[in-house]
Design goal:
- The protein is an alpha/beta fold.
- It folds into three domains: about 180 residues, FAD/NAD(P)-binding domain; about 150 residues, FAD/NAD(P)-binding domain, CATH 3.50.50.100; about 60 residues, no CATH class.
- Helix content is about 30%, strand content about 25%.
- Strands 7-6-5-2-1-8-20 form a seven-stranded mixed beta sheet, with helices on one face.
- Helix 4 packs antiparallel against helix 5 and helix 4 packs parallel to helix 6.
- The longest helix is centred in the middle third of the chain and has 20 residues.
- The relative contact order is 0.15.
- Bound molecules: flavin-adenine dinucleotide.
- Flavin-adenine dinucleotide (FAD) binds next to helix 1, strand 2, helix 2, strand 5 and helix 6.
Length: about 450
Amino acid sequence: MSQIKKILILGGGFGGINVLKLIQNKFKNDHNIRIFIVSQDNYFLYTPMLPQVTSGLIHSNDITIPIRKLCKQAEFYHATISSIDLEQKLVTITRTFDGKVHALDYDYLVITLGSNTNFFDNENIEKHAFVIKTVEDAISVNSQVINMLENAAQTSDIDFKKKLMTFTVVGGGFAGVETMGEINQLVRDSVKNFYPSIGEENISMNLVVSKEFILSELGPKLGKKAGEYLSKVGVNIITNTKAVDAGEDFVQLDDGKIIPCMTLIWAAGIDIDPVISELLCDHHKSGKLKVDSFLRLFEHEEVFALGDCALITNPLTGQAYPATAQNAIHQSVTVSNNLHSIITGKTKLEKFSFKSNGIMTTLGRKVSIAVVFGLTFNGPLAWLIWRTYYLSRLPMLEKKFQVATSWMADLLFKRDLTFIGLIKNKSLTKVDMKFDTSSVKDFFKDN
Ligand SMILES: Cc1cc2nc3c(=O)[nH]c(=O)nc-3n(C[C@H](O)[C@H](O)[C@H](O)COP(=O)(O)OP(=O)(O)OC[C@H]3O[C@@H](n4cnc5c(N)ncnc54)[C@H](O)[C@@H]3O)c2cc1C
């Protein structure tokens, strides 16, 4: 029997790249271990700073890291995972550039595929809303905002101008609130500095949330404080309300009210990909994978799951850990320690348990809210804490440098308002390129 063990990591987000980094270190120069990582994006995305891309505060590639740069002794497949066969220990992947399918076998599997945006089966909202999940989404939102500014500057029809200048964000979690904070600042600053014909009185910013206050993760006191700040800088917070329909130029709320607007940004919930929710194993009703305290699937001890796609219960509170980057990072430590123990024949495994020392969010220029070691900060000090903490957690020195430079430039200069239109991509589907099958069970063959 082969001595070589194959570890296959699915997903190149917070869970995936942290497991990758840790196991590469643990199995450094061990030729009996082969590590593979598959992701549909060829980069890791540092999501806590993604809202800042929507406002042009930082550049999209300030917060993306090509996964190949992190592969010291791993092989990377830029492909979509189409199915996982836990019995045969095979993962089917679809090659990104031409759609051909292949199967990868494994001895140990790490599933960390994150989550999708949840539109709650509303096709109109899905069709008309922007989302904030990937770097392409953030670039699209930035382009949309600039495009709306250019259009509004050229119309004298006040109703149309107002519609162009109305931005509605749905979702009161970090992604929705931070995005609202960023685009509010971009639009108001830009109108003041570069688009005098628009008129500040025609700007309308709406944040629609289903709860009584925003940022429920911070608790009622801080959530309300964050809401008060956003209201002060011109955001209309609509609480206890859901958006139920949308069209090209409107959003409808569940109380029947219609907001005429050309820009809807949807950040109202997460959904689990069918590749995960239809896997033949134990699930929570959300579709998330249920795991034991060592973060393994109950029926398959060689398979680990972590991050947003796994339901992991906090043994101290009995509640599920929230879907955050912080949790995914800590889970990756337990997963890599346990993988190492199993492969090296140790019987004692590590149970996952984690108590967060802090939580923070940023609401715009020089304003954040932070709770660190039980102490609450807000305003410029919290903003400084937010920036220092998140910059220190951004992987790779070159990216820290890029982000710090962008932040510095923002303190000195006005925002860039370049509108980038459609980007052309050339398809390679008609070109026959052979897949390297050295580590692949090529079931399907190129056809
Ligand atoms: C705008 C925004 C702001 C956020 N801010 C914060 C914050 O301030 N603090 C915080 O703690 N958390 C924050 N989060 C949440 C945080 O990003 C997630 O909890 C975290 O990314 C989860 O890590 P993960 O590894 O489970 O999933 P992800 O990081 O989402 O990674 C999933 C990976 O799987 C890949 N993938 C998915 N499906 C497939 C497929 N079928 N085939 C191939 N590859 C696939 C993706 O390309 C990606 O590489 C934010 C999220 C967003 C969207």
